[in-house]
Write a structure and sequence with these properties.
The chain contains one helix and 20 strands. It has a five-stranded mixed β-sheet with strand order 5-14-11-8-9, with no helix packed on it. The longest helix has 8 residues. With 248 residues, the chain is mainly β. Strand 18 and strand 19 form a beta hairpin.
Length: 248
C-alpha cells in the first residue's frame, strides 16, 4: 500500500538513513548529502574547491560554503524544511551559521593559531531544529544542552576536509651594480589579482618587513619576506615588485 502511494503521490520520507557513521535524511529513496567547499583550494576564488585536502596560508582568512545535495543527481537542495542551521568545527574553534538566501551555509575563519605544517580538520554538520536549539555559545565556549522535555536536534548530513597550513615565502636576488644599494629606500609590493597592493619596507623592531642579506661571493643580494595569508591571494599567484635606489 505504501509503495503504491509513493508511486501515485511521490511521497517524501523523513526517516533517518545511517551510512558510514553519518546520519542523513532519506529523500525520495536516497540520502541527502552535504558538500563543504573553500575559496582557497586549487580552483580559485571564483570556483569553490571541494578537494578533501587543500592548502591554506598561515594567517589566511578562509571562506567556506556548505550545501545540501539531492540524492543521485547531487544537485543543490534548498535546506528549508530539512536543515535549520549548521555547526562547524575548525580544529578547536566552533562556528554556528544559518543558510543565506541562496541556500548556502557560508562562514569565514582566520587561521590565527595554526602553525606551518599543521593539518586542520574542518567538519560542517547540518541540523534540523526541534524546540530550543541544542547549541548555545556561553562566553567563548559552545555548549550542547540536553532536555527531557525538548527533543534533540537531528543531524541531517555533514562533510569534512583538511587544510594543510603553509608559510608563504618571497625570495628575490639582486645583482650588485656600480653603486651600493640604499635598502632603507627599498619597497616590496604584493599585488593581488583585484589590484590591491600591500607595501612592505625594510624590517625594523617597530615593524615587520623584508630582510636583506649579502652580497655573496657572486655579488648577489637576497631579499626575503614571509607574508601572512591576508597579504596574498588565497589561490593562484600573487605578483611581487621590488624597487630600491642606489647611492647614485
Amino acid at each position: 500500500m505504501l509503495a503504491s502511494l509513493r508511486e501515485r503521490f511521490g511521497l517524501l520520507t523523513r526517516s533517518i538513513c545511517v551510512g558510514g557513521g553519518l546520519a542523513t535524511v532519506i529523500l525520495s529513496g536516497g540520502c541527502i548529502r552535504g558538500s563543504l567547499a573553500t575559496n582557497t583550494g586549487p580552483n580559485g576564488p571564483e570556483l569553490w574547491s571541494v578537494a578533501n585536502r587543500q592548502q591554506a596560508a598561515l594567517g589566511e582568512e578562509v571562506g567556506f560554503s556548505f550545501i545540501l545535495l539531492t540524492p543521485f543527481q547531487s544537485r543543490p537542495l534548498n535546506p528549508y524544511g530539512f536543515a535549520d542551521y549548521c555547526m562547524v568545527s575548525i580544529g578547536e574553534a566552533k562556528i554556528q551559521c544559518e543558510a543565506d538566501s541562496h541556500g548556502h551555509f557560508r562562514f569565514e575563519h582566520r587561521l590565527r593559531s595554526a602553525k606551518p605544517g599543521d593539518e586542520v580538520e574542518v567538519v560542517a554538520t547540518a541540523f534540523r531544529q526541534y524546540g530550543t536549539r541544542d547549541y548555545a555559545k556561553i562566553g567563548d565556549h559552545w555548549l550542547r544542552g540536553d532536555s527531557q522535555i525538548d527533543d534533540p536536534d537531528r543531524e541531517v548530513c555533514n562533510d569534512k576536509l583538511v587544510l594543510l597550513i603553509y608559510q608563504p615565502e618571497i625570495l628575490l636576488e639582486i645583482p650588485s651594480g656600480d653603486f651600493s644599494f640604499d635598502f632603507e629606500s627599498g619597497k616590496l609590493e604584493l599585488i593581488k589579482r583585484d589590484g590591491t597592493t600591500k607595501a612592505i619596507f625594510v624590517d625594523r623592531p617597530i615593524r615587520r618587513g623584508f630582510e636583506t642579506a649579502g652580497p655573496n661571493n657572486q655579488g648577489v643580494f637576497q631579499i626575503s619576506y614571509y607574508p601572512i595569508g591576508s597579504e596574498i591571494d588565497p589561490s593562484g599567484h600573487t605578483a611581487v615588485r621590488f624597487t630600491v635606489y642606489d647611492t647614485a
